[in-house]
Amino acid sequence: MNNQVMLESTGKNEYELFFGPAHPGSGNFSVKLEVDGEIVTSARANPGYLHRGFEKLMEYRLPIQNAVLSDRICILEPLNWNLIHAEAVDELMGIDVPERAKYIRVIMAELSRIQSHIIWFGVFSIGTGFDTGFKMAFGYRDYILDLFEMITGGRVYPTGYICPGGVRRDLPKDASEKILKVLDKIDEMVKLEEIENPVLQARARGIGVLKLEDAMRLGATGPLLRASGMKVDVRKEEPYEVYDRLDFEVPVRKEGDAYARYMIGIEEIKQSMKIIKQALREIPQGEYINPQFKKPKLNVKMPKGEVYVRNEGGRGEAAIYMVSDGNTKPYRVKIRGPSFLHMISVLEFLLKGVQIADVPAIYWSMNICPADLDR
Amino acid sequence: MKKESPKKKKMKKIIKAIWIFNWFNSCGFCELVPVVGSRWDMERFGMIVVGSPRHADVLFIAGYQTLKSIKVAQRIYEQMPEPKVVLALGSCTITGGMYWDSYNTIKRLDDYLPVTMYIPGCPPRPEAVFEACSKIFQHVKEME
Amino acid sequence: MKSDLKNEEKLLKELVSNYNVKGRIQRERRIWINTDKEKLISICKFVKEKGFDHLSAISVTDWLKEGEYEITYHLWSYKRKILLTIKIRVSRKNPSAPSVSAIWDRNAQIHEREMHEMFGVEFKGNDDLAPLFLENWQNSPPFRKDFDWREYVKKECYNKDNEREIVYHE
């Protein structure tokens, strides 16, 4: 009786709901929601379940050891982070990378991007209740993991394949045909995903709309900006490796909802396949690593200086800021992950006023990686 | 024939199909989700993934644990009904691994939970996971 | 095809003439300037109107021997395609700096929250500096150079009497 009187007088009916780390639809990240009936009134992000302190771990190790550690910064796209760390060390030490190595780096980074987008579809499908999509996605992803094992030696973690100076091993002789066969299979999968599924349309259209001014103010980058109408891509703004010689397009949409982000992901897979086919045709013969770095030297001092390197990861803009004071080990490494701002500011903004049933769909449509946030 | 202890009788009846509750951190997500998928199909061995710890027999701890996430893992362990088994997957969980000098990770899982089986690797292959699960059946057979 | 650095030189000249900063051009698309804590907010407002509307990162470097923290702000402009880095120095005892969250909104507020937790820097004007990654952490801020992780881990976690762990104590 007392409770009833209290509720009537305040008029509020809110209680706290933990959308936590052990929920099958949430990954290793938790959000604290305040809920009034079925509607969420406010959200607060609670990260830190995966925090290892990468930035300081890298200060205790040599650059060649950091190359192996850098696969694990974001475990869903290991080769892209390998690439950005190698670029930072190359620029700081002034190393020339041979042409063939640059083409191999681009091929591996684009394969890793395709694999990461396939995981995105798989988990987005679970979030909207389309379980067939999940099984399909993880089935097709295994073809790419077999390619990684053939070329680099590891299914999930490529053992620091892209190292400062070039790549560790040359491509095997039959790599080109095998890559093209796998791309045909991925083509099949993309055609199946493009069929307009009514379950997905009903759960994803018009949900989680992000307008362009809000996206700029909250610090969103990558596919979130492209789905809201702005055509930006780091590979076109400041081309790195050989992207200025390759021909590809940047897909853009205007609606800014979860369905637009999903369709941009599919378009990006198609563009990545186009890049890989061009690179396989144009790749020259030559060295796969700068000859001075073939055998790793342990006592090379890095010159004093600082660099800031930006790349286009699967989730947005990724960057590394590295400072050296003349020793063999770096003095300070700062890692900027794309999911850092998406998960805290954009998520808290988008979850206001939605129903509880829509929370997983919005969450997974932003393609976030908890390891990238906590580092 | 030796007389079977009551615990063994109970475990023999229950462990015919294993219901898993998984607590994945990084490596676990990349290597164990394909195990559920269509290539390394684990449902043909009778293992399925359940959504609540109250229905599970086996707790799979995959990947390194931090000070914040080990508290959640302990609470999940307490919610599971007897008999239960804990599997530790990956070398970072067992000995600290690559992050041995980090201030925020757990170096030895034995100090926090009673572990039955260790699966080393960085990360271990899916075939290793199947071998571990078949050894659980063996463990029950040889139990007193 | 080398570009001619005209845009970068023009921008650097404007900043030097208006605010008397010390700067250099590292290569195309990279400008680094050093300035004081007092001029920070007015320089930031000036460059935001010139098109630098994306704050990429805020970072702190701990120069232990000189007794100072160096706070760096990395700004990117989508129109001009230039990355401008602003560096200021503050003292290591009771470090504090003005907050730029009035200019770049939530983006800056969250970066400052992380730097407060990891290095202990007070940002005046930022009203949400709650801990982000750690819970109940009572020791010194973890990323400072005088907090040695290997010593801390040896004391807390590894056991001298266990013969397998003797190797970590050498």
Structural description of this entry:
The complex is a heterotrimer of chains A (375), B (144) and C (170). Chain A has 375 residues and is α+β, with helices and mostly antiparallel strands. Chain A has one domain (2-374): Cytochrome-c3 Hydrogenase, chain B (Orthogonal Bundle), CATH 1.10.645. Chain A has 15 helices and eight strands. Chain A has a three-stranded antiparallel sheet with strand order 1-2-3. Chain A has a three-stranded antiparallel sheet with strand order 6-7-8. In chain A, a hairpin with a 7-residue loop joins β7 (317-324) and β8 (332-336). Chain A starts with a helix and ends with a helix. Chain B is α/β, with parallel strands linked by helices and 144 residues long. Chain B contains five helices and five strands. In chain B, strands 2-1-3-4-5 form a five-stranded parallel sheet. In chain B, β1 (19-24), α2 and β2 (48-49) form a beta-alpha-beta unit. The radius of gyration of chain B is 15 Å and the shape is globular. Chain B starts with 5 loop residues before the first helix and ends with a helix. In chain B, 37% of the residues are buried. The model of chain B has no long low-confidence stretch (mean pLDDT 79). Chain C is of the alpha/beta class and 170 residues long. Chain C has two domains: 6-99, NADH:ubiquinone oxidoreductase Nqo5 subunit (Beta Polymerase, domain 2), CATH 3.30.460.80; 139-170, no CATH class. Chain C is 30% helix and 28% strand. Chain C has helices at residues 6-19, 40-49, 101-119, 149-156; strands at residues 22-27, 30-34, 54-63, 68-77, 82-91, 96-98, 122-124. A five-stranded mixed sheet of chain C has the order 1-2-5-4-3. Chain C has a two-stranded parallel ribbon with strand order 6-7. The relative contact order of chain C is 0.12. Chain B binds chain C through residues 67-68, 96, 100-104, 107-108, and chain C through 134-135, 142, 149-150, 152-153, 157-158, 168.
Percent in helix of chain C: 25-40%
The count of DSSP E runs of length 2 or more, i.e. the number of strands of chain B, is 5
Largest sheet of chain C: 5 strands, mixed
Structural class of chain B: alpha/beta
Overall pLDDT level of chain C: 85
Entry summary:
With 375 residues, chain A is α+β, with helices and mostly antiparallel strands.
Strand and helix layout:
The complex is a heterotrimer of chains A (375), B (144) and C (170).
Chain A lengths: L1 H9 L3 E6 L10 E7 L2 E8 L7 H4 L5 H7 L8 H16 L5 H29 L3 H21 L10 E2 L2 E2 L7 H19 L4 H7 L7 H7 L4 H5 L6 H4 L20 H25 L22 E8 L4 E8 L7 E5 L2 H12 L8 H7 L4 H5 L1
Antiparallel strand pairs in A: 1-2, 2-3, 4-5, 6-7, 7-8
Chain B lengths: L5 H9 L4 E6 L1 H11 L11 E2 L8 E5 L4 H13 L5 E5 L1 H5 L21 E3 L6 H17 L2
Parallel strand pairs in B: 1-2, 1-3, 3-4, 4-5
Chain C lengths: L5 H14 L2 E6 L2 E5 L5 H10 L4 E10 L4 E10 L4 E10 L4 E3 L2 H19 L2 E3 L24 H8 L14
Parallel strand pairs in C: 2-5, 6-7
Antiparallel strand pairs in C: 1-2, 3-4, 4-5
